[in-house]
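Q: I'm building a small set of examples for a reading group on sequence design. Run inverse folding on the following structure and report the sequence directly after it, with nothing in between.
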């Protein structure tokens, strides 16, 4: 991940008080980006602004797209599924934290959901494999 990319994202989001934290994930976080790769950014929003999440996501996409001159893909992590959250937390890079206590609470609750989901995912996969073997 280039420092310019990280710094631009960090500078933009540090002034967005409705944003709890921002993660860079995907090909740029793992240094596997190519010329046409988009920039995957996960944003954790304050609960009080979730009704405006679509408009905020669109605004972030437009403004950062202009600043970075690249295709931006913003994901609101508050509404993301467990598999994506697991990938973001394991392989992504946190580039901005505006509210550390709220981030700790968010991660604590989501890790519990990820762990519980893992159990049910394994049960489903095992059942699917048994059905295929019949």
């Amino acid at each position: 991940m280039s420092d310019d990319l990280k710094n631009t994202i960090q500078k933009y989001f540090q002034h967005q008080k409705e944003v709890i934290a921002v993660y860079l994930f995907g090909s740029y976080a793992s240094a596997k980006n190519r010329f046409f790769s988009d920039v995957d950014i996960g944003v954790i929003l304050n609960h009080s602004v979730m009704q405006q999440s679509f408009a905020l996501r669109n605004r972030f996409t437009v403004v950062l797209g202009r600043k970075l001159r690249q295709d931006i893909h913003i994901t609101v992590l508050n509404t993301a599924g467990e598999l994506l959250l697991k990938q973001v937390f394991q392989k992504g890079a946190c580039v901005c934290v505006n509210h550390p206590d709220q981030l700790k609470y968010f991660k604590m609750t989501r890790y519990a959901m990820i762990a519980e989901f893992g159990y049910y995912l394994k049960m489903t996969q095992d059942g699917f494999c048994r059905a295929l073997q019949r």
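The beta strands are 19-25, 39-45, 72-76, 93-97.
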